[in-house]
Amino acid sequence: MQKKWLAVLTLSVLISGCGLTHRQLLKTHQFGSATEKMGALGEEEFENIRSNIIRMNSELMAIDNTKTSASLILDRPASAEATMKRVAACKALRSYGELLVKLADKNDKDNLQTVTESLTQNSALALQTELTDEQIEAIGRCAAGFGHIFIEKKKADALKKIIPAYEKPVHDLARLLMVDFSLAADMDSVGYLKALDITARRLKNASIRLVNAGAEYSVYERDRAVQAYVLAEQMLTRSESLNKKAVSSIKGLQKANSELVRIMLKDRPEADDIKKYAEEINELMNAYQVLTK
Fold first, then answer.
1. The pTM of the whole model exceeds 0.90
2. Virtual torsion, Cα 138, 4, 95, 47, nearest 10 deg
C-alpha cells in the first residue's frame, strides 16, 4: 500500500484549470491553519491523557492498599497501541491543514513530499482503511515536480481536487476525535477524556477517605492523600473544560470542512462556518495553554 502511495506521489502535476479567487485562497488558508492547530493540540493532548492516567493510577495504588499490580493496569484504557492510533489521526489532520496552508500561500518553492506522505500514511493508520483512488490521486498531485517551482495554476488545480476528495476522510477523522473528547454518557465507547474523568473520580474518592480520616493516618500519609486529591481535582477540571471547547471545535471542523468544499467547487457565499471554526480553535488553544500549566 505504501509503495502505491509513493508511486502516485511522484506523478507530474497536470497543468489544468484556472486560478482561485482571493476569497477561496483566504478561506482555504484560514481553514488549513485552524486544522493544523487542532491536529497539533490533539496529538499533544492524547499523550498527556495517557501520561496523566498512568500518574493517577500510580497515586491510587499508593494510597489504596486494596489495589495490586494484578488488579490495576496503570495505563488502561490508554495503552500505547491505542494512543498511537489517536496520535495518527491528529497527525493526519495537522498534515492536511499544513498542506492546505502551503498550497494557499504564494511561496512557489514549498517541497510538499513530507507533508503529503504524513497525511496519507496517518490517515490510513487512524481510519484503518485504504484511501480511494480519487483521494490518492488528489494528494499525489501535490508531490510532483519536487525541486521545481510550484506555480499558482498548479496549486489551484491541486486544491480543487484535494478539498472535495478529502472531505469524507476529514469528517471521519473528526468523528474519531469526537468520541475521545466527549464526556457524554451515551457514547458507544469510552473515549480518552472520559477515561481521564473516570480515573480522576476514582482517585478523588480514594483520597477523600484518607483526608477525612483525621488523626487515623500519619502526616506523611495524609500529605500523600492531599496531593492525590489535588491531582484528581485538576484532572476533573481539565476534562470538563476541554470537553466543552473541544467538542464545539470538532463540530465546527466538520461544518467548516463542508463549507470549504462548497466554496472550492462553486465559490458560493458561505455562512461564516470557517470563520467561526477558526475563532473556536483560538479559544481552545488559549484554554489549553491555561490548563497545561
1. no
2. 150
For residues 195 and 50, give the distance between their C-alpha atoms in angstroms, rounded to a whole number.
9
Q: How many CB atoms within 10 Å of residue 129?
A: 11
The yes-or-no verdict on residue 198 having pLDDT over 90 is yes
Query: 199 or 141: which carries more pLDDT confidence?
Result: 199
Averaged pLDDT for residues 117-126: 86
Phi-psi region of 145 (alpha: psi -120 to 50; beta: other; left: phi over 0): left
**Residue 215: CB atoms within 10 Å:** 7
User: Do 155 and 103 meet the contact criterion of CB atoms below 8 Å apart?
Assistant: yes
Residue ranges in 141-218 assigned as alpha helix (H): 152-165, 167-180, 192-211
CA–CA distance, 25 with 274 (Å, rounded to integer): 12
Reduced to 3 states, what is the DSSP secondary structure of residue 97? helix
Percent share of the chain, pLDDT over 70: 85
Whole-Å CA distances, 68 to 9, 63, 137:
51, 11, 53
Distance CA 183, CA 191 (A): 8
Q: What is the DSSP string of 254-293?
A: HHHHHHHHHHHHH-PPP-SHHHHHHHHHHHHHHHHHHHT-
Among residues 147, 153, 148, 146, the alpha carbon closest in space to that of 106 is found at 153
Average pLDDT (201-216) is 91
User: Any residues with CB less than 8 A from the CB of 290 and at least 6 apart, and which?
Assistant: none
The span from the CA of 30 to the CA of 27, in Å, is 5
In angstroms, rounded to a whole number, what is the distance separating the alpha carbons of residues 41 and 285?
8
**For position 208, what pLDDT does the model report?**
94
